Amino acid sequence: AGHNIDEVNGQATLTDEQLSFRLQSLRLNDLPLVASGQINDFKKFILDCEVETNHGSLEAITKAFPQTKQLDLHGLVDGKLSIKGPLANITATGTATINNGQFYKQPFTSQADIVYEQQKLNISLHQATLLQGSASGTGHVDFISPTPKLSLNLTFQKINLATLAQNSSGIEGLAAGNLQLAGPVNNLRGELQSAFAKTKILGQSVDHLSAAFVAKDSEVFLNKFLVSSANAAFNANGQISRDLVFDFQANAQGINLAG
User: Fold this and answer.
1) CB 171 within 8 A of CB 201
2) Exposure pattern of 36-52 as b/e (b: 16+ CB <10 Å)?
3) Which of 18, 118, 186, 233 is the most exposed place for a label (fewest CB within 10 A)?
């Protein structure tokens, strides 16, 4: 796929075997960049450069990698990358800070360490905030397949369930646990395990949640959703649309409803 490059401002020096450049600004697929470095051996197109973006959009980054356009990922990113090697097999290392992020409609912020090599992207997330709680974990994207494959392992603490439920009545408390996602980026399968603290759903104290789901085309399909305590359980399956419309079938045991 082609890329749009415009608004280039800087200096470059060209010799028979090398192009050196220092670009104060350019835009790649609407992503603002600053870049400096050199290109050697024009047959192999060997790169050795530093690239930086400030307040770039995650959507613009997915345009640079069209295979990932299926990801429902939004936000602003500040980042620096060091890129080296022939264009056909580049490596990149760097850091990024994501603000005002949204992943399948869920807001987050995070800092990340990034390594790209052999067509695989490895991301280590730390100092992340999610639903008024905190999170950390690792993610991997394999670009070798025609549709990239994502794997994500996220550990979270003190997630606010009222915020997760869009402040729906009758849901309150905090959650800690683990989230795993894996599969092609347009058809992700996930598992969630969580323990609760001071949590009530419709007035009923609960202490554990487990769920299995599929995230596809910006919608979430719940194959299993189980919330339980020592004396009660709530089971559900169904669908959450991209507009956060819930369509569930559910049953409950031992639930004592409170107003």
Assistant:
1) yes
2) ebbbbeeeeebbebebe
3) 118
Mapped onto helix, strand or coil, the DSSP state of residue 185 is coil
- The tokens for 218 are 């910006």
Q: What stretches of the chain adopt beta strand conformation (E)?
A: 5-14, 18-28, 31-40, 46-57, 73-86, 91-103, 106-117, 120-130, 133-142, 149-160, 171-184, 188-201, 204-216, 219-228, 233-240, 246-253
Enumerate residues 6+ apart whose C-beta is below 8 A from 142: 119, 120, 148, 149
Residue 164 has a pLDDT of: 67
* Residue 140, token pair as written in the block: 């991997």
Q: Render pLDDT for 166-180 as a digit per residue (tens, 0 to 9).
A: 666 667 888 899 999
Q: How far is CA 182 from the centre of its chain?
A: 12
Residue length of the chain: 259
CB 249 within 8 A of CB 195: no
**pTM (two decimals):** 0.78
Residues 6+ apart with CB under 8 A from 190: 179, 180, 181, 182, 211, 212, 213, 214, 215
**Chain position carrying tokens 């060997």:** 46
Nearest-angstrom CA–CA distance, 96 and 110: 8
